[in-house]
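Is this the right way to post structure tokens for a design question? Let me know if I should format differently. Anyway, here goes:
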């Protein structure tokens, strides 16, 4: 094979590896970002749940105070019962006490319901908080691993780029420029095989006479439709 063509084939291999590595690298930061969002979303949700619990506790304390006040009302009324002179007054007082007791029962029931609900939510929150702590640790570890991988990939790419530049410096500047433009404009594929007379870049058939010339691997022939540089290899 013509030396320049051989170099271009080598550079193409390096460029393909660079592109693969960069594609792989791009997933890292995306994954890190998604995990960070997941954790912060969970944190926000738990903060909202905590606020709900605090609200319920406030409500319960208020009701407990009400209950205390109502109970002392009943006690006062019961104490007064002995001082009542007439039966009519006595009956009225009893009725008042009954009503106050009924109201106490109702408030007591409400306090209980609030207590149960709060306990339930607290238990859930405790479990969720434990899960979150665990997940935070996992995310931290995973983030570190991904960052390490990114660093490794960066080092690999740096080496590949150095090698690519070294190889490219060995060919004439016009061809080098042409190659670089093709890499940029043709999705990272500048040098392609021609299999059975078909360009493996754009899959157009090339004229038979051109195919014969390409098969010799003696000069840089470009595809009439996509401008990629041809080489020939029977089996890939
Ligand atoms: Zn083509």
């Amino acid at each position: 094979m013509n030396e320049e063509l051989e170099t271009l084939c080598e550079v193409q291999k390096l460029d393909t590896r660079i592109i693969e590595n960069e594609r792989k690298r791009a997933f890292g930061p995306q994954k890190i970002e998604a995990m960070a969002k997941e954790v912060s979303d969970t944190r926000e949700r738990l903060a909202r749940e905590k606020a709900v619990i605090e609200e319920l506790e406030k409500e319960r304390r208020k009701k407990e105070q009400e209950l205390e006040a109502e109970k002392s009302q009943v006690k006062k009324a019961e104490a007064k019962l002995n001082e009542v002179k007439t039966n009519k007054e006595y009956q009225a007082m009893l009725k008042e006490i009954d009503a106050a007791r009924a109201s106490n029962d109702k408030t007591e029931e409400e306090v209980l319901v609030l207590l149960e609900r709060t306990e339930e939510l607290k238990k859930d929150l405790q479990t969720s908080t434990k899960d979150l702590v665990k997940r935070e640790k996992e995310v931290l570890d995973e983030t570190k691993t991904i960052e390490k991988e990114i660093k490794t990939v960066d080092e690999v790419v740096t080496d590949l780029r150095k090698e690519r530049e070294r190889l490219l410096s060995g060919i004439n500047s016009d061809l080098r420029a042409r190659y670089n433009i093709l890499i940029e404009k043709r999705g990272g594929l500048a040098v392609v095989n021609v299999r059975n007379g078909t360009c493996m870049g754009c899959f157009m058939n090339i004229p038979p006479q051109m195919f014969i010339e390409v098969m010799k691997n003696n000069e840089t022939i470009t595809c009439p439709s996509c401008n990629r540089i041809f080489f020939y290899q029977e089996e890939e």
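Format looks fine. Someone answered above. Worth noting: The first helix runs from residue 3 to 81. The beta strands are 191-195, 198-199, 229-231.
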